[in-house]
Design a protein that fits this description.
Length: about 80
């Protein structure tokens, strides 16, 4: 009985480990797509333009970082590309 419990526990751990690896890989791919070149993302540009009409650059950068998960550098590059 204890052997079956141990085996089922090991099997569950393996299944969860594989699931975590798969999800980690998906997250990595999505992050690469998101941060590939944010200045070419039309949706982000239009969103940032609307924000810039209402708020300062610094507040827009903070909002992009918080809401869209962008890095400070990517958010700044996006704002700079809009201001050119």
């Amino acid at each position: 009985m204890e052997v079956y419990t141990a085996l089922s526990s090991i099997l569950i751990i393996i299944v969860f480990f594989v699931a975590i690896l798969i999800q980690s890989n998906k997250i990595k791919i999505l992050r690469q797509q998101l941060h590939h070149n944010p200045t070419e993302n039309a949706h982000l540009q239009s969103y940032a333009k609307k924000l810039l009409q209402q708020e300062s650059e610094i507040k827009v950068i903070k909002k992009l970082r918080k809401e869209k998960g962008m890095s400070m550098l990517d958010a700044k590059k996006l704002i700079d590309s809009i201001n050119k």
